[in-house]
Amino acid sequence: MQSELFKILLVEDDQIERLKFERAISKLDHTFDLLVAKNGEEALAICLDKNPHLIFLDLNMPKMNGLEFLFELKNTPIISYIPVMILTTSDNQQDKMEAYKLGIAGYVLKPLRYPEYVLNIKTIIDYWTINELV
Amino acid sequence: MQITDPYITLLQQELEQLKLQNSDLTSLLSDKSVLLNETNEKLKASTTLMEGLLSDQSIQLNTIVENSSLGIVLTEEGVFIKANKAFQQMLGYSQKELSEMTVKDVSHKGDFPASKSYLTKLNDGLINHFLIKKRYLKKNGRYITCNTNVSAVRDTEGKVKYQVAIIEDVTRKEEQSKMLNAINKLSISILGKRNLSAIAWEIVRITADHLGLEDCVVYAVDNDKQQLTQVAAYVNKCPMEHLIQNILTIPMGYGIVGSVAKTGIPELINDTSVDNRYIIDDKARLSELSVPIIVNNKVIGVIDSEHSQKDYFTQEHFKTFTNIANLAAAQFNNALSLIKEETARKENNKLLVKLKKSNEELENFAQVVSHDLKSPLRSMSAIISWIQEDNQDLLNPETTLNFERLHSKLDKMDHLINGILKYSSIDKINQTIQAVNIHQLVLDILQVIHVPAHIHVQIQGTLPSIDSNKFRMQQLFQNIISNAIKYIDKPKGVVQISAITKGNNVIYKIEDNGIGIEKKYHNKIFEIFETLETSEGHATGIGLSIVKKIINSFKGEIWLESGVGKGTTFYIKLQKKILDSEKDFIFD
Hints:
Number of helices of chain B: 14
Helix content of chain A: 40-55%
Order of helices and strands of chain A: EHEHEHEHEH
Mean pLDDT of chain B: 83
Low-confidence stretches of chain B: 533-538
Strand order of the largest sheet of chain A: 2-1-3-4-5
Shape of chain B: elongated
Strand content of chain B: 15-25%
Oligomer: heterodimer
Number of strands of chain A: 5
Helix content of chain B: 40-55%
Low-confidence stretches of chain A: none
C-alpha cells in the first residue's frame, strides 16, 4: 500500500475553473495532492517531475493547448501511461476524435451548473482512486 | 480488064454498110451531145445551188460567231484577222483596232510561257487544240481572266494556217470564288477570337490577301467620344502596324468612313474625286468601299478599302464586304455574350468562394465565440453557487429565489450558445445519403425526448422511408416534434404524425393542438433567433432555423397551417429517391 497521496494534475488556464475544481474535490472524502498547470508546457514539466496519477485536461489554452500537450505526453514513454480525462466546454466533433485517437480515458463536457459539475468530478475521481487502491 | 460484077456488088454492099454505120454514129454523137449539154446544164444548176447553199451556211456561221457570248477570234501568226463582238466588248477594242494588234498586245506577260509551250506543240503538230486560263489586258488597262480554247486550222501540207480561239471571261466567277474563299477563311480564322483588334487584323489580312485589294482598314467606333479609330490596316499585302502606331482618328460623320459609321449604311464610291466627303489618307485613291459592322443596332466598326482606279469595286466586292461585316458582327456578338457569360461565371465563382469562406468563418466564429461565451457563463454559475453555498444561512427566501432566477437565465444563455454551435456545425457532420427509415427514427426520438404525461403522440400508419442523411433527419424531426410538444397549452395534448406520398415526394405532416402561431409570424419563425413573444422557457429561436436549413439543403419544402389557439400543422416535403448524380449537390 502506498503512503503517498493520490496525485491529480489539473491543466486549466481559467482561474475560476481552477477554483471550481479545487472546491469540488475539497468536498470529496479523500484528500488529494492537487497539482495545477496553466498550460501544456507547465503540465508537461509537472508530469515529468511529479508523475501524477490522473490528469484533468482542458483543451483551449494558450501556449501549448490540450491536444498538443496530449500528443507530447503520449509520445514521452515514461509518462505516457498517465490516464487523461478531457474536461472541456468544447463539443467539437473533430477535437473529440483527435483526443480519442491520441488516447484518453474519457471526454467530459463541463456541465453548466456547479452541483452537477461537483458530482461529475466526484464520480470520475472515485472511479480512478478505487482503481488505484485495488 | 473489067472489074467483075461480083466485086462491084460486094463493094457496093460494103459502102452501103459504111454509110449506114456513119449515119448511126452521127446520130449517136448528136445524142451524146444533147446529153452532155443537159448534164452540163444540170451541173451548172447544181453549182449555183451549191453556191447558194454555201453562202447561206456562211451567213449562219457568221451569225453564230457574231452573236456568241463567248469571244471568238481568228488569228494568223499571232495577228487578229477576225474577232467577234463579244471579244471586242470583252477588251473594249473595235474590230478595226484589233486588226492592227497582235495577241501578245492584249496578253498578260505572266501567261506568255504557258501559251508558248502550247503553241510550240500546236505548230509541231503534236496537238490540234488546247485550253488555257490566261489574263487579257483591256483597253482601260485592267485585266480580265479568261478560259481560252485554241484550235488549229491547217493547210494541205498540215502547216498551221489559222488559229481559232474561243474565249470565256471567268473574271467574275474567279472573283466570286475568291470572295467566297475569303469569307470561309475569315469565318474560321476569327472563330473564338474575342477582341475587336484581333478580329480586325484577321479581316484586313484575309480580305486584302484573298481579294487582292490595294488596302483594307478596319476602324473601331467609339460611341462615347463620337469618333473612329483605326485598329487594323493592310496596305499592299503588308500589315501596317507602324501606321497603327500613329493612330488615325476620324470624327463621327466626317469623310466617307465617318458617314458610314454614322448612318450604318454601306457605300460603294466609284469615283471619289467627285465625292466631296472624301478625305485623302496617305494618298488619293479613286474608288472606295466602306461597310459598317453593326452589333445590336449599333455601328461598332467600319471595314474600308480604297483603290487607285475608278470603278474598281464591283457589286461582288460590295456583297463580300457586307458579308464579312455581318460575319464580324456575329463574332463580336458571340464574343460579347461569351465575355458576359464568363464575367458572370467568374463573378459567381467569386461569390461562391466568398460564401464558402464566410460560411467557414461563421463556423469558426461560432466555435470560438461559443467557447469564449461559455467560459464566463460557467464561472458565473459556479461563483453564484459558491455565494449560495457559503451564505446558505444568511439568505432570505427572496434572495434564494433571485439566485434561482439567475441560474435559470444562465441556463437559457447556455442553451442559446449550444444552439448557435449546432446551427453553425450543420455543414460539418457526416454527409452520407442513404435510405432512412423515418418511422423508426421518429419512434427513437420519442424515446429520447421528454414527452409530458398529458401529451399523447400518435403516429398514423407507417411513415415512409426516404433517401436522406440520418443525422439530419434526426435533427429535423426532433426539432419539429419537440417544438410541437413545447407549445401545447391544453390539458390533453395531442401530436399527430402522418405522411402521404406524391410521386417522388413524401409530405410529412406534424399536427399539434397547441397555442398556434399568428399568420404574420408564419415566415418569420424559420429565421434564426426568432422566438415568438409568447414563448417561454427554453426557446432559443434556433430550432426551426435548423429545420429550415436542413430542408433547404435537401431541396425540400416546409410550410405550416396554424391559427391562434387552434394548434399548428407543419408540412415537410422531401424527395423519396435522390439520384446519385444529385447527391453531390445536397451539401454544396
